[in-house]
Amino acid sequence: MPQAPSVNSNKLLVVVTSLPNMESASTIARALVEAQLAACVQITEGISSIYRWEGKVCEEQEVLLSAKTVAHRWDEICIFIKDSHPYDLPEILAFSPEQYDQQYGEWVQAEVNSKA
């Protein structure tokens, strides 16, 4: 089970994952927003990744997702990404910004805490 970052439950998180193509990135991004697990997901194309997998150095073009959410949704968003991701072992990282605009933070909280 994913471990929750040690932060206040309404503190903002930026959850990052990489995907093989724009189609899978768009599908997961839209699903995260529709499920209210993220208020906003940004998609960045053209990421070059070099990594070792099963003893071999690989180089791939990927698409990076950055989902804005809150700390208490970490377990749910992590499980959702794992279940939806085409990779056997997806990168799923969470970063908590130390500072952010108060109105933006309130909007993110309202979007992911809403029962709409």
Characterise the protein shown here:
The protein is of the alpha+beta class and 116 residues long. Helices cover 31% and strands 34% of the residues. The chain has three helices and four strands, in the order E-H-E-E-H-E-H. The protein has helices at residues 22-34, 74-84, 102-113; strands spanning 12-19, 40-53, 56-70, 93-95. A four-stranded antiparallel sheet has the order 2-3-1-4. The protein is elongated and about 45 Å long. The model is unreliable at 3-7 (pLDDT under 50).
TL;DR?
This protein is α+β, with helices and mostly antiparallel strands and 116 residues long.
Index terms:
116 residues; alpha+beta; four-stranded antiparallel β-sheet; 3 helices; 4 strands; 31% helix; disordered N terminus
Please outline the helices and strands:
Layout: E1 12-19, H1 22-34, E2 40-53, E3 56-70, H2 74-84, E4 93-95, H3 102-113
Antiparallel strand pairs: 1-3, 1-4, 2-3
Give the spatial strand order of the biggest sheet: 2-3-1-4
Distance between the termini: 27 Å
Largest sheet: 4 strands, antiparallel
> What's the SSE pattern?
EHEEHEH
Estimated share of beta-strand residues:
25-35%
Averaged pLDDT, please? 92
Low-confidence stretches: 3-7
What level of helicity do the residues show? 25-40%
Question: How many helices does DSSP assign?
Answer: 3
The secondary-structure class comes to: alpha+beta
